[in-house]
């Protein structure tokens, strides 16, 4: 069970990218080495999970200041990691430990889609950033004042425009100095992980609303039906008792 909070611990830097890594730790696939990463490696072990730009990845090798991960084809399709170059800065966060304060929101490190930055607007010492999801279906899980994870950073959604397919967030001065978002430009991609609560609720409730009778939806439908039947029966019983008393 691995979980993150979206509170970025450190910004590392990409020091090596191999599209076909045939070494013992490369797995004959795409690999990436992250340097300037000592703060997230103090208790690192092989096989540990570290979030890179909001993507949960497995450490296959590491030193005192660097670590290496492999990138599967699905990861490259879903995220912006394939766009990174040597020298790119990345947000880093270790998987959540049981004995630490929880400061963000529940983040899985499973990127749903990417989004394109369509505007960056300063306001005093804050920064407004407007983003358009690449897959518009995920916009239904994004709500004003709800949580969202962008490149591994837990942020609060400010506005959502379903008709124009965008939402925006605001970065305060402290956050701007601790994450990579202010380094991006209009047209750049960000990794988006929506709040998983909305997806779970939809999975459970949608079959009920559509009248499906199989699976979880059917089970919940039966529970609701039983509850209503018992409630109606109780009301009928109480009504009959009142009528008898009145007569």
From TrEMBL:
Lumazine-binding repeats lie at residues 3-105, 106-205. Keywords: Repeat. Transmembrane segments: none annotated. The keyword Ligase does not apply. The keyword Repeat applies. Residues 3-105, 106-205 form the Lumazine-binding domain. SUPFAM superfamilies: Riboflavin synthase domain-like. PROSITE patterns: LUMAZINE_BIND (PS51177). NCBIfam families: PRK09289.1, ribE. This is 32041_t:CDS:1. It comes from Gigaspora margarita.
């Amino acid at each position: 069970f691995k979980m993150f909070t979206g509170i970025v611990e450190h910004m590392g830097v990409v020091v090596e990218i191999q599209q076909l890594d045939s070494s013992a730790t490369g797995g004959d696939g795409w690999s990436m080495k992250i340097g300037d990463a000592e703060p997230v490696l103090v208790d690192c072990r092989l096989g540990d999970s570290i979030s890179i730009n909001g993507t949960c990845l497995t450490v296959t090798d590491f030193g005192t200041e660097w670590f290496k991960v492999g990138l599967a084809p699905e990861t490259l399709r879903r995220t912006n990691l394939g766009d990174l170059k040597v020298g790119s800065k990345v947000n880093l966060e270790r998987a959540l430990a049981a004995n630490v304060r929880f400061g963000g929101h529940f983040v899985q490190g499973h990127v749903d889609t990417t989004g394109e930055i369509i505007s960056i607007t300063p306001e005093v010492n804050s920064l407004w950033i407007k983003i358009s999801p690449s897959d518009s279906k995920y916009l239904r899980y994004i709500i004003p004042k709800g949580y969202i994870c962008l490149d591994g950073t837990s942020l609060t959604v400010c506005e959502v425009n379903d008709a124009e397919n965008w939402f925006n967030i605001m970065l305060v001065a402290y956050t701007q100095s601790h994450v990579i978002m202010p380094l991006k430009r209009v047209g750049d991609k960000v990794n988006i992980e929506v709040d998983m609560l909305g997806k779970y609720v939809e999975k459970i409730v949608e079959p009920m609303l559509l009248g499906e009778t199989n699976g979880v939806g059917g089970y919940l439908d039966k529970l609701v039906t039983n509850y209503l039947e018992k409630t109606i029966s109780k009301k009928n019983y109480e009504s009959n008792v009142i009528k008898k008393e009145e007569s």
